[in-house]
Amino acid sequence: MQRFDLKDGGVPSRERAITAAVAALDRGRLVAVPTETVYGLAADATNAPAVAGIYAAKGRPSFNPLIAHVCDIDMAMAHGILSPLARQLAGTFWPGPLTLVVPRRVGAEASVASIADLVTAGLETIALRMPANGVTLDVIRRLGRPIAAPSANRSGGISATSADDVIAELGPSVSVVLDDGASPVGVESTIVLLAEAAPRLLRPGGVPREAIERAIGQPLADNDHEPDDPQRPLAPGMLTSHYAPNARVRLDVTALEPGEAFLGFGPFFPEGLDKAVASANLSATGNVVEAACNLFRLLRELDRSGAAAIAVAPVPGGGLAEAIRDRLGRAAAPRR
Ligand code: TXA
Ligand code: MG
To answer: What is the domain-level CATH number for residue 27?
Structure first.
């Protein structure tokens, strides 16, 4: 495995990293790429065996489709049918933490390699996103094709927000790791379905629901999907149990039980805090942007304390708090 440090490197090391990543993708290998949300485990989206390698490395159910990451709107339009509303959202929020699920474009131009069916898990829609990371955008541009990339963690586990997390989760499966430091947003992209009469929020994430509703001047419908029903794979990744540490997770605590670690938010001190096995705060000032950025790192850190359970303070409010509550709710859900 080759690891490239992009944080303090100059232009030559950036170039070497991009060249190595593109060469690996071109040969059908897996590359860990930084994005503004979390690290991705990437393959050439047009190379079916390479995409199969993502599912194998993650232990991911093959009915759970992947996001195709593009470097610009033209590349998105080559593989998906973007309505005026989709184009408006892309124009407003790309590059950035917004994924658009749109009808797949079938019979694209002959000069355009088509996306492997495994990426979309056989659905008639495709999830498209342009991430806000300059190096990853350059990799996609140089490859000339979209990359399929789920979060770089084992299926069901905590997402990776640093290169060290990726290597701990998936090291042996990855040919190249592009280390661009901690992921600044810290929770995955917001996913909006644009293949029905009204736009629907499939997954809350890095772009707050309110910002999208303001941009399009209409409310987003809620996800009414039965989460664990593989027969109806509208957003199959919305599995109830996900983002799970080894420890159990208990939400909205007011009092700690023996043997628990504590994950706080703001100036909130539950009963029994002095007996906590370990403790950390998502944001001492109760700032939800900071809390999202710290969420997965602190879940991993508290999990390493060996506590039987992680007790989490309430995380109230709008904006990114919706995505944080979504991730914590799945981390706390009964395990499969
Ligand atoms: O921020 C992100 O979105 C990160 C970074 C790496 O870009 N990626 C990510 O991928 O979170 P993943 O695979 O962990 O989550 C993608 C979600 C899954 O829940 C999947 O079911 C859903 O997107 N998805 C993909 N294609 C879909 C489609 N055609 N229809 C509905 N949901 C889809
Ligand atoms: Mg994931």
So the answer is: 3.90.870.10
- Ligand located closest to 35 CA: 1
Decide whether any atom of ligand 1 lies within 6 Å of the 131 Cβ.
yes
The answer on 204 and 252 residing in a single domain is: no
- Whether residue 183 has its Cβ less than 6 Å from ligand 1: no
**Probe ligand 1: pick from 31, 33, 60, 66, max atoms within 8 Å of CB?**
66
Ligand 1 contact, 320 CB (< 6 A): no
Question: Is there a single domain that holds both residue 114 and residue 36?
Answer: yes
Could you give phi then psi for residue 282, rounded to 5 degrees? -60, -40
In this structure, is residue 240 part of a structural domain? no
Helices 134-143 + 11-26 axis angle, to 10:
50
In this prediction, residue 173 carries a pLDDT of 95
pLDDT, average across residues 282-302: 97
| Residue 227: predicted pLDDT | 53
Residues 204 and 282 in one domain: no
State which ligand 1 atom lies nearest to the alpha carbon of 40: 6
Rounded average pLDDT over 136-153: 98
Provide the residue range defining the domain that includes 307: 248-332
Label residue 11 by pLDDT band (50, 70, 90).
confident
Residue appearing with tokens 């140089």: 142
Q: What is the pLDDT of residues 107-137, one digit of tens each?
A: 766 678 899 999 999 899 999 999 999 999 9
> Is 38 near ligand 1, meaning CB less than 6 Å away?
yes
Is the pTM higher than 0.90?
Answer: yes
CB 135 within 8 A of CB 141: no
**DSSP state letters, 256-317:** PPTTEEEEE-SS---BTGGG-S-EEES-TT--HHHHHHHHHHHHHHHHHTT-SEEEE----S
| Same-domain check for residues 37 and 95 | yes
Instruction: Tell whether 231 is covered by a domain.
Output: no
Q: Is 188 in the pocket of ligand 1 (CB under 6 A)?
A: yes
Average pLDDT estimate for 183-195: 97
- Range 198-211 average pLDDT: 96
Where is the domain boundary, 216, 233, 257?
Answer: 216
Examine the domain organization and report whether 290 and 191 are in the same domain: no
146 C-beta closer than 6 A to ligand 1: no
Rg (CA), the chain: 20
